[in-house]
Write a structure and sequence with these properties.
Blueprint lengths: L57 E2 L1 E2 H12 L5 H10 L14 E4 L6 E2 L1 H21 L2 H15 L4 E3 L3 H22 L5 H19 L8 H18 L2 H14 L23 H7 L19 H20 L4 H4 L2 H12 L26 H10 L5 H10 L15 H5 L5
Helix pairs in contact: 1-3, 3-4, 3-5, 4-5, 4-6, 5-6, 5-7, 6-7, 7-8, 7-10, 10-12
Amino acid sequence: MVPTAFWAQLAPIALLPSVISAACTLPKTSISATSTTPPGPSGTSFPTQAPQSWVHPGVFVSGPQLDFVASQVRASGEPYTEAFNAMLADPLASPCRTAKPFATVECGPTSTPNIGCYDEREDSMAAYMNAIAWWVTKSKHYADKAISYMDAWSSTIKAHTNSNAPLQAAWSAANWVRVAEIIKSADVGWSTKGIQDFETMLRDVYLPLMIGGNAKENGNWELVMMEASLGAAVFLEDRALYERALSTFAARVPAYIYLTSDGPLPVPGRDIENTRDAIVKYWNNQTTFPVDGITQETCRDFAHTSYGISSISHVAETVRIQGTDLWASTSLGMRIHAALELHSPFQTGSKIPDWLCNGNITRSFDPVVEPPFNALSFRLGMSLPNTEKLVLQQRPAPIGEAEPLFIGWETVTNAQNPY
C-alpha cells in the first residue's frame, strides 16, 4: 500500500526493487465488489502545459531508457535479451522486407476494405523495431532500414479514407513518431529532405484526422488519437499542439477508467449526455459500478480495453520524459492501477463475477501491461500482484495481434527499467 503522502510528490521517483523472478507464482485471486486501489489523488484534473524545453528522443521511450536496454542486452541480462532476440526473429524485422507505401490508405470497419491498412501498420511497426535494434546494437543497417520505411511513406501517402481513417492514422502515426524521434535524435543519416517530408506528412496527412479527437466512438479511439498527436507535437516541437492533445487526453482518462470517488456513475465524457441511461449505454451496458477500475470498454471486450490502457500508459510515459509525472501527481496512476488489478485475474484463471458484464467477457488483453507495471510497481514501488502474474505470462510482450496496431515488444523497452 502506498501512503497518501506519496502522491503529493510531483518529482519522478526511482525505486529499484529486486528483479522479478521468472519462477514467481502467485495465488489464484477471486474478485469481489471491494476496492483495493491505493490512496492517491482522485480528481479529474491533469496538468496540460507543454515542457519549457524538449527532450529527444522523447516519445514513449527516452535515450537513457534505451541505453539501459542496450547495456542489459550486452550483458545477456534477462528478460531483455530473450525479448530482444525474439523481436529480431520477427518477420517484420527482416532486412529483406521492403516498404509498400500507398498514396491513399482506405480502411473501413475492421479494416474492410483493406487498401494499404495492414501495409501501413506493418511498415510503421517494422520501422520502430529497426529503430530499437539500431539503438541497442549500433549496427547502421537497422537505422538505414528504419529510414527507408519513413522515407517511402512520407514521399507517397496523401490521404486516409473511409470510416476507420482516423483510427488507422492514429495507430500508424503512434509508431511513426517513435521511430522519427529515435532516428532524428541519433543523427544517423536521415536526410534533411527526409525529415522535412516526414514533418509535412504528419501535418498534412495524419494530424488533421487525429487532433480533433472523437467523442462518440469507444474511448480507445480518442486515446490513441491523442497519443499519436502528442508524439507528433514532441517531434515537431509544437507547444500549442502538445497542449491541445494533452487537454483532450486529460478529459478522456477519467471518462474511460472509473473510480468510486467519481460518484455512483462514471464521468460522462465529452458529448455524452449526463444521464444514467446514456452513461450505461456508452459503458456497454454495465449497470453497476461497485469497484474502482471498470473501464468504458470492459463489457465490450478485453482487447479494446487493453488498447485504451496502452494509450494512457504511452502518453503518461511521453509526458514523464518531457518533465511531468502524471503517474504520481494525478489520478491517472490510481485509475491504471485499479484497471490492471481488476482485469488481470480474468486473464490468468479467475472467474468473472456475475455483477461485471453479466459474468461474460470476450477476447483477451493484448500484451500491454509491461509499461504501466514498470511505472507503478518498479519505479513507484506499488503492489500489483494480479498484474505481476499477467506480466510474466505475457512476456516477451510481442505484437499480440495477427496484424500490428501500435503495441509491440514492450518487454524490450519497459521491463524493470528505471528510466
